[in-house]
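Incident review: delayed structure delivery

Summary: a single-chain prediction request sat in the queue longer than the usual turnaround. Root cause was a stuck worker, restarted by the on-call engineer. No data loss occurred. The affected request and its eventual output are reproduced below so the record is complete for anyone auditing the incident later.

Affected input:
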Amino acid sequence: MLSALLREDVVGLRSRSTLVHRPDGPWLRRAAGPDALLLPVAEDGFQCAYAARLPLLRRASDGAELTSYADVLGVLRALAEPEDRAGFDAFAEECRQTLATLRLHADTRAGTAAELTSRHGADPACWTGLDAGLAFDALAARQDHPVYPTGRGRAGLAEHSGVDVVPTLSMRTVGTAADSALHLKVPLATSSLGLRNKRSVKPGTLVDGAVGQRLVQRIVAREPRFRDTILHADETTYAHAGHELLAVLCRRHPAGLADSVVVPMAALLAEAPDGRLVLDHLADRFHDGDTLALLDACLTVLFDATEVLDVKHSHGEEFAVLRGGTHHLRTPATKGHDQPCSVLPVDTWPHPWPRPSAHSGRVTLAGQLCTPKDVLARRVPVRDLRAGDRVVFSLAGAYAWNISHHDFLMHPRPGFHFLSGDAPAL
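Output delivered after worker restart:
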């Protein structure tokens, strides 16, 4: 929770604090009237420069350590503007509900593991079919959200009679007990990832989703690599009454999955009933225990590549200016994280002038827009980086292009290339 509050700069916890070095490590000091709050931190480098190192805030005046969510949010609420304090109250309620969920998960872990083992066997890598896919959902539901600290909380759920269904990882989606291939997405007057984040279904999204599915199907049909690796769930059947709480989407999974292991990505790092990670079980069965090979197979289609245009040196730091920027890959600027990346060296240099290069060991990767917010990754550890090299950003498939401001300053749009397995290196 503290790391999330720091990342989101709640009451200036990041921007209005000063870094203090102490014998046990760095601390952030945030003035609080005549007093101050101290937060022990460590370098993060993924979503924020720093993350909380210990689960506490320390009051400077008397050294008191605040270790409960109620105490921490209470002192931060006092620093907030009056109109923002209701948000702190709502978040405190989320924390209370999430803490109850965590305790429930702890109390039921052994029983759930025994039930899943009894139904599907001891080795998750051999759990096959769509029924077993829901078992992986059950494991993934016990994982924390990678960004939102109260992701396990479910606000406003209540018991009602109706069709027999099985919960899935998605709060709004249930599997029908009579047909494991049919899932129903329904609006709920509940919240997840924030009490104000209501889980409704807007009618327009149903129409857009069906159009998007037909478009993706046409693309896959003409791309040999995708034609053999991508299966589609049918989401073209839906109904609504013109209201976001009166709608339903019928998701029909493809046939022929009875012998397949159907695993949501969120379950890869979940604990299997034997305590090992699901990822390790799958790697043992499909990649001779090589987890990197398994991840590579999963992530191959989620890459974005760009060229280093120049390397700049300013105030003791090195910056690589890339072709493109946040108008192509918006997620790091939107979410405030550093996009995972790798450098592909290019040995040729066709120009007569010296080749700009970075050798400090850490380089900030910036786009070519005239704004300080055009940053894709900060202080990336690289051995050498030169103008003309390529930088490949992973996990760039979802939202990155769709939410970007494509025509900002009229820069050209990027190319989209679908590479087959035997395609040459970029």
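Verification: The mean pLDDT is 85.
Action items: add queue-age alerting; document worker restart procedure.
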